[in-house]
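Internal tracking record. Fields below are filled automatically when a chain is submitted to the structure queue. Please do not edit lines marked as system-generated. If the sequence contains nonstandard residues, flag them in the REMARKS field before resubmitting.
Queue: standard
Priority: normal
Entity type: single polypeptide chain
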Amino acid sequence: MTASLQVSHQAAEDGGPPPVRPALGAVAWKEVAHLLGNLPLALAGFLYTVCMVSTAGGLSVTAIGLPLLAAGLAVSRWLGRFERARARWLLGVRVDEPSPLPGWRRSGGFFPWLWTAVKDPVAWRTVLFELVRLPWGVLTFSVTLTGLFVLWPVLPYVSRALSNVDRVMVRGLLSPSDGLERRIAELESDRGVVVDTAAADLRRIERDLHDGAQARLVALAMGLGLAKEKLLEDPDAAAAMVDEAHGEVKLALQELRDLARGIHPAVLTDRGLDAALSAVASRCLVPVKVAVDLPERPAAAVEGIAYFTVSELLQNISKHAGARGAGVEVWRADSRLLIRVSDDGRGGAGVRRGGGTGLAGLADRIGAVDGVFAVDSPEGGGTVVTAELPWRAR
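SYSTEM-GENERATED OUTPUT FOLLOWS
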């Protein structure tokens, strides 16, 4: 008796069904219910799948063929979710849900999203599941129904054997492939974030050049042209115009330096994160303590992401936090580069989409390189932002 209880306890810990018993218990009745439900559900799934594939395939030469196939595969994904839930409830099979497909915006537009939906491996494995389950559903329904009236003494063993095959099918066809689909979806989503970020940065640089240095240089050229015309007839006015042009040159050079610093600061390239973050902190409107403890410099790309993350967070502190002081800490822990930026301001910050704080954009950028971004900002309690980046040596 004790050994039987130990075996049952071990099976429960492993997440599988308890050992089969001659009498029909709750687990056995659930297995019987699952097997009897296989036929009607398999018939409905088979008919839907065949109609969906044949209709979409026949219309594939038209403009609505691929969108129709994508919609049909989305429904197949839903069928797979239903079957996983049914197996979880009746068979005790614990299967993780696959990652959802990225939306149109995260995919980069309608056609990239359409292509991702059409080649969705989760949906296609569900299609295969629905096709092979019909003959299996006929078999399990017939055997189980016969067992209820003819083979009652051996029904628990028969239902366990048949339901174990169902468990294998669910795990093999309806579960993520060791996280592969999840990782593919994450990478495709991150690629869209990187592309959008790069495009936004290019637009910002173009706008800054057009509205700033370019406009000043145009005004400078016009001013020097007028000074050249007045050089002989009114030397004093020409000299004044040259002085004004000299001031415009200084302003244009300063704007170009600021723009270059926004793209990639020279101090970061030459002296690393410690000096670059100290320079950023010196321009912050509140006192900032900087502590950088790195045994060596990380890869240039990681270094750049860390720099611009801290730079934008300090800008947020200057504009929104109402803080009296702030701190920046950067250190390495195993294979991660850790960043913590804190302040003693009003708090209440969060990663809100469209909230204007810029934290959502930072979270997307850091997530695109397998990083982690977390915000702890209770009302009135200051803000602590922690970021983790993968460490890559130069």
